[in-house]
Design a protein that fits this description.
Order of helices and strands: HEEEEEEEEEEH
Number of strands: 10
Low-confidence stretches: none
Mean pLDDT: 86
Shape: rod-shaped
Radius of gyration: 31 Å
Strand order of the largest sheet: 5-4-3-2-1-8
Strand content: 25-35%
Helix content: 25-40%
Distance between the termini: 122 Å
Number of helices: 2
């Protein structure tokens, strides 16, 4: 007793075609996933750098505002705050502070006193050049001083 009814099924050729098409779609999906992952990592790095620059500028503004005496020499910045000294060290690898390290590459520093550029000593402003900023830009931070401090700077006391 032979059953002469046919069972509905796919042929081996149809199954092979579906497998080839599926593997092509999966291959393209992985390639797109790699591109998207690479873009996300680039955006993440840019965000972290931007965040570090904002944090550096904020820390400097706060420390400059609180400090009584500010001095600069080579790649160091010393700020006297409430009897303690805050030391910033700048390098191409980053900015180092006692409690913090910021991954912002610094090219060079320019120190200012009363609007004039100085090599070292007492300062009231600093210009920090970095390749992380647009068009090799810079951050400029200066101390807002009171009349008494201005008189001291101008040697009227």
């Amino acid at each position: 007793m032979r059953n002469s009814q046919k069972i509905a099924a796919f042929t081996i050729n149809e199954i092979l075609i579906v497998l080839v098409i599926t593997s092509i779609v999966v291959g393209i999906s992985f390639a797109v996933l790699q591109l998207v992952t690479k873009q996300i990592k680039a955006i993440e790095k840019k965000y972290e750098t931007s965040n570090a620059i904002v944090k550096l500028k904020y820390q400097l503004l706060v420390d400059f505002d609180k400090s009584v005496n500010i001095s600069g020499k080579d790649n160091e910045l010393r700020l006297s705050i409430d009897g303690e000294t805050a030391l910033y060290e700048f390098s191409k690898q980053g900015v180092y502070k006692v409690d913090d390290t910021l991954q912002v590459a610094i090219n060079r520093l320019q120190f200012y006193l009363k609007g004039e550029e100085v090599e070292e000593g007492t300062i009231d402003g600093v210009k920090i050049y970095s390749t992380a900023l647009k068009n090799d830009g810079y951050i400029f931070v200066s101390k807002k001083s009171s009349s008494k401090e201005e008189m001291r700077l101008w040697d009227y006391e």
